[in-house]
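S1.2 Input.
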Amino acid sequence: MYLVVMVGVLGPHHAIAETLKGGYWGCLSEELFDQISTAAVRKDLTGIEYLLKHGCFVLKAGLKVSVLDTTWTGTAKLRVYVGDSAIVIWTVTENIVRD
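S1.3 Output.
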């Protein structure tokens, strides 16, 4: 009986395609993402402009992603695929679209 249950649990699964809504910030580290989020709350435009040139950027809609980790605060660590390359970024979980 145990083997049958394990086969059901470990058997083939349908992959869930995930993409980005776009228009949200993404950063190369969780620390940078926290900094730009704090700058936004404080309306620190100088800080936001600096971070957008040093490790943070506005994400485009439709990019394919794999979710690597999420936090209880609503941030997500993602692998974003662009052509034959990928980059790991942090963004908000609400930026993820599960197709």
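S1.4 Remarks. The helical segments are 2-10, 30-41, 45-51.
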